[in-house]
Design brief:
Helix content: 25-40%
Largest sheet: 7 strands, antiparallel
Oligomer: single chain
Distance between the termini: 100 Å
Strand content: 25-35%
Amino acid sequence: MDHAALAQEQAKVTNWPGYIGWSVGLLILIGLVYWLMRQGWNWRRTLQSGIPPLPAVPARAGRTILETSGRYHGTTTAGNWLDRIVAHGLGTRSRADLTLGEDGLLVQRPGAVDFWIPADRLTGARTDSGIAGKVVPSGLLVVTWTLSQAPAGETSTDTEPDTELDSGFRADHPDEHAAWVEAITQLATRTKTKKTEEAAK
């Protein structure tokens, strides 16, 4: 290789201004994407400002039926796995400790907002492959429940409509999901039957 070609090749290798320009451009692009994501998140939170507040979290869930640990993957409006709920901290994925008791489902999340689903707000449960736009090949436990303006144990009025939600969890041992589906379904049915009998008295 002659000296002219070698000098040209070295100039390409040491073209620092060009590399720096590309790097700055890439950082700006990443920053723009992040900003747009944050704006979308804030816009969704604003749209969901009418969603009722979460029920107060109790110290205990009543007599324990099941316990497990795993990950919380998100909450959506029931039946729409892409319509992610971000209000009240429900949009934050996190570790989660689940306790199903006779009084309801307690979700404790280190570093994120804990939440509580009273037994009379549980609708049912199922296994599914994804939620909030995320597919989990090993499967998820999806709990369907209602969020209401009315206090637990009371029925919503026409001016206080319920918001039906799906919340997705993945236990550290996914083979536990079937037992959770059965237990939540039984608790929801038992609670509904009890309320119906009390209302008939």
